[in-house]
């Protein structure tokens, strides 16, 4: 998957050079458009539909689909969306921009969806922003953290892209700050102040590459090795050898596309004298400890909702319990708890229910201004945290706001750690902590 340059966007093309929706409409001609789409973009008696976009060959997408259905079912059972029952339509993006464009076009033009929610990787999300904006479809991002999805679209052309909101996670700029504060916590706890900084070579990690080195330097933490790894990498042993030679106290890694299971196995077998910290999406899978035969012990990853192990809000743990009871018998993981995207998707659809009730209509595409105004008034207690959005004049318009504690540190980016017993504990920040961070037993 090629890394996209969000700062040099051609509005007539998607991130892969394909012709975008706006260009297509211009080329087709008014008569062709009218003929092709007549009857597809409106209709007073059409059912309320919510489109969900996710990589369905990935447990992250499966969990998101399940929580989307939970949210729709719960609202339908409690009076509906402004009195209407909704139907959920999930489409598989396959983590490919071209596929995402195709299924989004189908949902908008054929299914006449009133809301789009989801998407995982930033390149896929970027590829459909023009299309959602063209037809005024509210779009809630629930898996992509790249700040450019907001700043380069909603920020650069607010009137065109005001349909776009990010429910979570907080963007990578704020994540960088939170990770730096977490590193300071590790320094105070263990005396760890030398870091090997590794990341996916992908759009979502570019802000980490830009901000993390300076943020760590401000905290007297040194980066002794730095690399952006190809997402196609299939041999992580040389990387671990380089880290070992660098003398780093721990790896600070940002992996969404790279599954570091092999890295963890080698790390445990060799008992390397460094920890493994940061973000690892595969490590969020509730069965990951068992799947790695315990090699995940001591690794950490940040994840929305802290995997449900901490009462982030009074809704977090009841939500995870309901999820586990509902999907306990399913063969396909995740069955114990959704991964981070599922928390955000559930919150997004729940917020949508409140907003359409407030504006008195589910016809969001013809009432986009009212929908946006109400979204900007939201202060919603979700399962992943308290949710509100930045306004038009901010640096991140329509982005989810970060939460901060009394000391000014960000609190809605919790860190979790696998224990040798196979449990997940929340180790940071302090107000959500269920256990203190452990260094590997061979380092103690």
TrEMBL record:
Keyword Signal applies: yes
Q: Where would I find the Leucine-binding protein domain in this sequence?
A: 49-395
The record's section on SUPFAM superfamilies has: Periplasmic binding protein-like I (SSF53822)
Q: Do the record's keywords include Endoplasmic reticulum?
A: no
- What Pfam families is this protein classified in? Peripla_BP_6
What keywords appear on the UniProt entry? Answer: Signal
Q: Which PROSITE patterns match?
A: TAT
Name-wise, this protein is ABC transporter substrate-binding protein
Organism of provenance: Natronorubrum halalkaliphilum
């Amino acid at each position: 998957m090629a890394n996209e340059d969000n700062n040099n966007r051609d509005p007539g093309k998607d991130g892969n050079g394909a012709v975008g929706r706006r260009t297509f409409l211009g080329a087709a001609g008014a008569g062709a458009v009218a003929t092709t789409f007549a009857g597809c973009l409106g209709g007073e008696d059409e059912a309320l539909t919510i489109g969900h976009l996710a990589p369905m060959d990935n447990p992250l997408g499966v969990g998101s689909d399940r929580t989307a259905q939970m949210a729709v079912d719960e609202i339908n059972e409690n009076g509906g969306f402004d009195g209407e029952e909704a139907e959920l339509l999930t489409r598989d993006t396959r983590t490919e921009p071209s596929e995402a464009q195709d299924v989004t076009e189908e949902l908008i033009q054929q299914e006449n969806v009133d809301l789009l929610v989801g998407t995982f990787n930033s390149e896929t999300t970027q590829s459909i922003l023009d299309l959602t904006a063209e037809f005024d479809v509210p779009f809630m991002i629930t898996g992509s953290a790249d700040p450019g999805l907001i700043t380069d679209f909603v920020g650069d052309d607010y009137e065109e892209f005001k349909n776009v909101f990010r429910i979570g996670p907080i963007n990578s700029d704020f994540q960088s700050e939170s990770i730096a504060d977490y590193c300071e916590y590790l320094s105070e706890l263990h005396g760890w102040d030398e870091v090997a900084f590794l990341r996916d070579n992908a759009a979502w990690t570019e802000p980490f590459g830009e901000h993390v080195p300076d943020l760590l330097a401000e905290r007297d933490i040194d980066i002794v090795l730095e690399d952006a790894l190809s997402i196609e990498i299939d041999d992580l042993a040389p990387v671990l050898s380089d880290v070992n030679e660098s003398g780093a106290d721990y790896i600070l890694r940002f992996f969404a596309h790279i599954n570091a299971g092999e890295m963890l196995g080698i790390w445990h077998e060799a008992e390397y004298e460094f920890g493994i910290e940061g973000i690892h999406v595969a490590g969020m899978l509730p069965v990951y400890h068992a799947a790695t035969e315990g090699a995940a012990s001591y690794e950490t990853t940040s994840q929305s909702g802290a995997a449900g192990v901490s009462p982030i809000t009074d809704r977090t743990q009841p939500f995870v319990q309901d999820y586990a009871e509902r999907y306990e018998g399913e063969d396909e993981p995740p069955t114990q708890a959704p991964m981070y995207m599922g928390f955000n998707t559930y919150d997004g659809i729940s917020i949508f229910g409140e907003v359409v009730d407030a504006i008195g209509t589910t016809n969001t595409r013809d009432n986009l201004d009212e929908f946006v105004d109400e979204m900007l008034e939201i202060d919603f207690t979700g399962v992943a945290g308290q949710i509100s959005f930045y306004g038009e004049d901010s640096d991140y318009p329509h982005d989810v706001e970060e939460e901060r504690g009394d000391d000014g540190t960000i609190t809605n980016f919790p860190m979790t750690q696998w224990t040798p017993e196979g449990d997940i504990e929340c180790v940071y920040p302090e107000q959500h902590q269920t256990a203190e961070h452990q260094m590997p037993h061979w380092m103690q």
